[in-house]
Specification:
This protein is of the alpha/beta class. The protein folds into four domains: 87 residues; 96 residues, no CATH class; 66 residues, no CATH class; 112 residues, no CATH class. The protein contains 23 helices and nine strands.
């Protein structure tokens, strides 16, 4: 927890002492208690979507683990699985709905616990799982049952859990259409200002299936799916107000960037070069590939390729071999990463969520407390209680108004995305750029090409800094000056940071190269 967050936690604890724990103030007391319990915890990221929308496969791919969570072609996840940083050999922890003591069981039993074979599923609230993937240090990932699960209780478990936990951010998974269940969650949480483009991403999954269903196959899965994404967002205007972007992704191929082995690559190369025509014809459908005896591969090895890559993934590897018969495993994995859509998605996941995880959590706490204040205000009739609430409200406002520049940027971005502020399109785009929406390196923050020199970046930052300072001086409207000052502060901070890094670079070169 950063020093800034520690200071916020201390201030909130001081304010909590003013809040009565009973009567009309109960919702506010609970909001403060929840803030105290969660402020030092990692950001909570929930994965939601329909059944068989590749939720668990996507989680495995993000973490680079083949079978961290059980997956399959049918509905397999019947319990909420909460992934946290820790020893992957540790027991999983079962939390119960009826309040009975938590239960620890060996990791080997996870598949049974998370799936229909697990016995008494109805009393399980969620399963806590530990892994040493680095991203889990700052972001916990919550995998949920499908929102249209065959067992209605499992869908309700997801809804109840999300309402109780109030995840800080969400990834919404869609297939060929937008599920009403997912939109219901969007509507519910948007009413509480919980989901916005700042803490919600969309993923169009199974783009490899879209490719299989498209004849003739003259376009890549990414090219086909981008058209589908445009159609989904056009038909569902709420999505534009809710998610930062919708990314087409094949979770299976994304996972294959970790799980594809040299042996599998050799199998595809051998089968393709043995009879190129027969191999190409076998890619018409899965059954044709599995029954292609001309490949020279044993049936179980053909099945392993389909399970690992899917038909489209096999076709992508085939194309890489066709372009270079000696292509190596690392190159093929990079190709799969691009063609799966993982490149763009992972970059946004880490930039948009990873670098803002603590900030997103603090903003969620702020929203929750302010919402509780509004609730209490609507119930109060006692003048003394009104005066106390006004005092609490002011101290809360002062606490979050004193946040650092990153929080002011966040609030301005939120206003831009929710159309709460009317900016010229060029100004809105510049805000998004300098606030890190298009990347967080110095050149990206300045909208400059990669490879720009420190002096060029300093000149650009100073030019924008002076320009905004002059604009603020001419602007009579205090509200306009307020958001402009945030932009000015971002350029000033970046310029000072570049100066610091330039000096550090000069020292390093002097020490290492005597320059």
């Amino acid at each position: 927890m950063s020093l800034q967050t520690q200071e916020i936690a201390k201030r909130l604890a001081d304010i909590r002492r003013l809040v009565p724990g009973d009567g009309v103030f109960v919702p506010l007391a609970e909001a403060f208690d929840r803030a105290a319990a969660t402020i030092d915890k990692p950001m909570q990221l929930a994965i939601i979507g329909k059944i068989s929308s590749s939720k668990s496969t996507l989680v495995n791919a993000i973490l680079g683990k083949e079978e961290l969570l059980p997956t399959g072609q049918k509905e397999v996840t019947f319990n909420v699985c909460w992934l946290k940083y820790g020893d992957p050999r540790a027991d999983v922890v079962i939390h119960h709905k009826d309040g009975s003591p938590e239960r620890r069981v060996p990791r080997a039993q996870l598949d049974a616990l998370a799936t229909i074979e697990g016995g008494n599923l109805d009393n399980i609230s969620y399963i806590e799982i530990f892994d040493d993937s680095e991203i889990l240090r700052s972001i916990n990932i919550i995998d949920t049952p499908g929102l249209d699960a065959l067992r209605n209780k499992d869908s309700q478990n997801t809804l109840d859990f999300i309402a109780h936990v109030r995840p800080d951010a969400v990834i919404m998974l869609f297939t060929h259409s937008v599920s009403d269940n997912v939109l219901d969650i969007v509507r519910q949480f948007n009413a509480e200002s919980a989901f916005s483009p700042l803490n919600a991403l969309g993923v169009l999954t199974k783009i490899d299936v879209l490719w299989q269903e498209t004849i003739p196959r003259v376009k890549s899965a990414l090219e086909i799916s981008k058209k589908t994404v445009k159609g989904l967002t056009r038909r569902n205007p709420m999505l534009k107000k809710t998610i930062f972007e919708m990314y087409p992704v094949s979770a299976l191929m994304f996972l294959a960037t970790t799980t594809l082995t040299q042996g599998m690559l050799t199998d595809i190369r051998t089968a393709y070069l043995a009879d190129t025509q027969a191999f190409d014809k076998s890619l018409v459908k899965v059954d044709s590939f599995l029954n292609n005896e001309a490949s020279g591969l044993a049936p179980e090895r053909r099945r392993k390729l389909v399970d690992t890559l899917g038909l489209y993934g096999i076709a992508v590897v085939r194309d890489a071999i066709k372009a270079d018969p000696e292509v190596d495993l690392a190159t093929v994995r990079e190709t799969l990463r691009h063609e799966s859509g993982a490149d763009a998605f992972a970059k946004t996941l880490y930039n948009h969520f990873g670098l803002r995880s603590e900030l997103i959590k603090i903003e969620g706490i702020s929203q929750h407390i302010r919402g509780a204040i509004r609730t209490v205000r609507g119930r109060i009739s006692n003048p003394a209680h009104s005066a106390l609430l006004a005092q609490i409200d002011q101290r809360v406002a002062d606490t979050f108004a004193s946040l650092a520049q990153e929080h002011r940027e966040y609030e301005l971005l939120n206003a831009i995305y929710n159309n709460e502020i009317d900016l010229d399109p060029a100004d809105a785009e510049e805000c998004c750029t300098i606030f890190g929406e298009h990347g967080t390196s110095a050149p990206q923050l300045l909208g400059m090409p990669s490879g720009s020199t420190p002096d060029q970046m300093l000149a650009r930052a100073l030019e924008r800094e002076n320009s905004w300072r002059a604009t603020i001086a001419r602007e009579p409207d205090p509200d306009e000056r307020r958001w402009m000052t945030v932009v000015l502060g971002s350029y000033t901070r970046l310029r000072l940071r570049i100066q610091e890094m330039k000096y550090t670079l000069q020292l390093a070169r002097s020490f290492l190269y005597n320059e």
